[in-house]
């Protein structure tokens, strides 16, 4: 029996959907399968053929306009002119690797480090979040002399050999590393009667103890602080501190994976970890850093990084190249100039409030939670039992697609709509999203 991945297969096109496609779409899906193989996935039972993007909007090959409520890759908006211009200008001058001197990488490093706690004072660059997390795990193991890595039960941290072994969201077909341990997700919706911070710390200690019982030395905890793959679980700001204290008390380090909550996404802080007033040992970033240009980074405390960098050279041919740095600098500048952190906070709060009104109208809406422009909309079969309704969530996703609103699902049960639009999302877009969601729920539950 084929395995299923919560992050790849929950909302995906499958062979049984092919009969319902128009001729041209069927030709494209058949060709894709032939030339790309079977590991790739497409969204939706009827895949979308996109040809253009601008800000928070996308257009398909037929010219139909869509509202993007899922894309944090183009974090400041699709085809932002500042990024286009910066990349174009640098491409006309030079693009090479980091073994030559160049100002861009130095200027950007100083700029982005200024957004972080002063203890984090070193930067390294790659092309993808997977590479950043892979290197972070290597550094954690070097610093601690251990191998054990703790992640949450539905975490996704990358596709390299190391990171896929610590990414349970990839599914049962992906074997987890023997030194990986899974922490129960801090699901405040289902754990509303406990002190979540204390509970989370206890769970952390239990996993560290289990490692020790199996002869594994603890190296570190790798987490996305909004727990996006676990179902978008922002929790009360600050609840993570006690668990991070446990990590440090046991000789491990905390790696903050900021690919999802970073770059002003949560509104309450520039970084997801800062929302919890945490000081990580390592910070990793990826997708939104370059607004679609492949660039990622690792930022660390100098003493933590020294355990690795003083002994092992590291080189990434494309990591930190001038064009990538130009794109990354443009993103930082736009976030400041367009006041996107405050924008994310204010528009996100208005969106959250409007989405929460749907709870009064639809009994199937169990919880609506979020921080800034990152919101989880959870659908259940029964509010009392909080039993997840994955089928309804998947049907809602398809209805939204018909209404030209694009998003997907998350969480271990695949029942949480993951609403994460580009930061270009505006107040006037709220009616389109909430209206389409209201209509979809009404049509599917009538």
UniProtKB/TrEMBL annotation:
Q: Which family does it belong to?
A: Belongs to the class-III pyridoxal-phosphate-dependent aminotransferase family.
Identify the SUPFAM superfamilies for this entry. Answer: PLP-dependent transferases (SSF53383)
Leader sequence range is: none
Protein name per Swiss-Prot or TrEMBL? 4-aminobutyrate aminotransferase-like enzyme
Could you list this entry's UniProt keywords, alphabetically sorted.
Answer: Aminotransferase, Pyridoxal phosphate, Transferase
User: Which branch of life, at top level?
Assistant: Bacteria
Q: Which cofactor does it need?
A: pyridoxal 5'-phosphate
* InterPro entries in UniProt: Aminotrans_3, Aminotrans_3_PPA_site, PyrdxlP-dep_Trfase, PyrdxlP-dep_Trfase_major, PyrdxlP-dep_Trfase_small
